[in-house]
């Protein structure tokens, strides 16, 4: 019997999961595992938790859903906790597995861990096989090598739209052969140094983790409400569930794939309409791809003060009081404060809000942008390492912005995007 381990990470789904399908096709039996990595629940050098309460809760829900979906097909999910380079080889020995299948990483720390796990597995004659599962366009189908990817998004987009195709989304398996998998046992939040939080009733959307919820949201946003047809006009909104797709949290944990979203979008376009709005969603998914490929190209530069540019970012030493006021929505600038309170109480903020609060921290307070990025890492339900650090460095003028210093006039932004103050009134009232 050829047994393989499937190591789930941020690909918590059955549909369009090449890692899972490849393991099934090349093995007699598979053992799905997820590891709560010690490093993910530590405090970063910036003083924030790597994983905060909101995201941890969303992760737990996603794992419960994944386990239920696996069990419906004859399998289940084993939970490990600790250091993956220790825990993965242990489970390999337990099940006498010859191979471990996992999603391929691109970000610096994740890549280092992947290499470490691989070398530990080699010692016990086990192979680690990794596959790219996170992007709309497959890395192998790009019209340029990773080192030659343009550092300006528009150049990247034009070339890719002209010369590349999006692969078909893969069906979920119909059945999975596994040894008997014990009942799911998740660590509790307290064990991870976190607590269960109640999301504020003013939250734009009540996010619930898992592939089932992701598919439900996609069906609602595309087919039930047809909200996608107005996406380009409403995407800069700030109040309510439907001004934007809100797919980001499920995408971040891989509860849904960008390719599956694209395939459903094509279905929608053939049934209803293809317009600027339906294209714009693909445009946003392309940005997500771009930051992932940029991370692969520039590696740990995205986590350094001067980013991928050699110019000095001009930030001053961090002023803890100013930083705390920014975090707690006490800057005295109502538009910034409303957005930061929303983030603090819900784990979410609109795209328009994110750009403004980042610009304020970088350009008005002139604080080290990495503190902002690290706070977002802790706080956001939809935290994605590539998009988060890529976007922050962009606004800080040390990333992929060809214009350099992108300053937002906060008063103008507030009057353009919150004309009647409905967003500010919602979050600034006691």
UniProtKB/TrEMBL annotation:
<dbReference type="GO" id="GO:0000719">
    <property type="term" value="P:photoreactive repair"/>
</dbReference>
<comment type="similarity">
    <text>Belongs to the DNA photolyase class-1 family.</text>
</comment>
<keyword id="KW-0157">Chromophore</keyword>
<dbReference type="Pfam" id="PF00875">
    <property type="entry name" value="DNA_photolyase"/>
</dbReference>
<keyword id="KW-0285">Flavoprotein</keyword>
<dbReference type="GO" id="GO:0003904">
    <property type="term" value="F:deoxyribodipyrimidine photo-lyase activity"/>
</dbReference>
<dbReference type="InterPro" id="IPR014729">
    <property type="entry name" value="Rossmann-like_a/b/a_fold"/>
</dbReference>
<dbReference type="InterPro" id="IPR036134">
    <property type="entry name" value="Crypto/Photolyase_FAD-like_sf"/>
</dbReference>
<feature type="binding site">
    <location>
        <position position="231"/>
    </location>
    <ligand>
        <name>FAD</name>
    </ligand>
</feature>
<feature type="binding site">
    <location>
        <begin position="284"/>
        <end position="291"/>
    </location>
    <ligand>
        <name>FAD</name>
    </ligand>
</feature>
<dbReference type="GO" id="GO:0003677">
    <property type="term" value="F:DNA binding"/>
</dbReference>
<keyword id="KW-0274">FAD</keyword>
<dbReference type="InterPro" id="IPR014133">
    <property type="entry name" value="Cry_DASH"/>
</dbReference>
<dbReference type="Pfam" id="PF03441">
    <property type="entry name" value="FAD_binding_7"/>
</dbReference>
<comment type="function">
    <text>May have a photoreceptor function.</text>
</comment>
<feature type="binding site">
    <location>
        <begin position="244"/>
        <end position="248"/>
    </location>
    <ligand>
        <name>FAD</name>
    </ligand>
</feature>
<protein>
    <recommendedName>
        <fullName>Cryptochrome DASH</fullName>
    </recommendedName>
</protein>
<dbReference type="InterPro" id="IPR006050">
    <property type="entry name" value="DNA_photolyase_N"/>
</dbReference>
<feature type="domain" description="Photolyase/cryptochrome alpha/beta">
    <location>
        <begin position="2"/>
        <end position="136"/>
    </location>
</feature>
<dbReference type="InterPro" id="IPR005101">
    <property type="entry name" value="Cryptochr/Photolyase_FAD-bd"/>
</dbReference>
<feature type="binding site">
    <location>
        <begin position="382"/>
        <end position="384"/>
    </location>
    <ligand>
        <name>FAD</name>
    </ligand>
</feature>
<dbReference type="GO" id="GO:0071949">
    <property type="term" value="F:FAD binding"/>
</dbReference>
<dbReference type="InterPro" id="IPR002081">
    <property type="entry name" value="Cryptochrome/DNA_photolyase_1"/>
</dbReference>
<dbReference type="InterPro" id="IPR036155">
    <property type="entry name" value="Crypto/Photolyase_N_sf"/>
</dbReference>
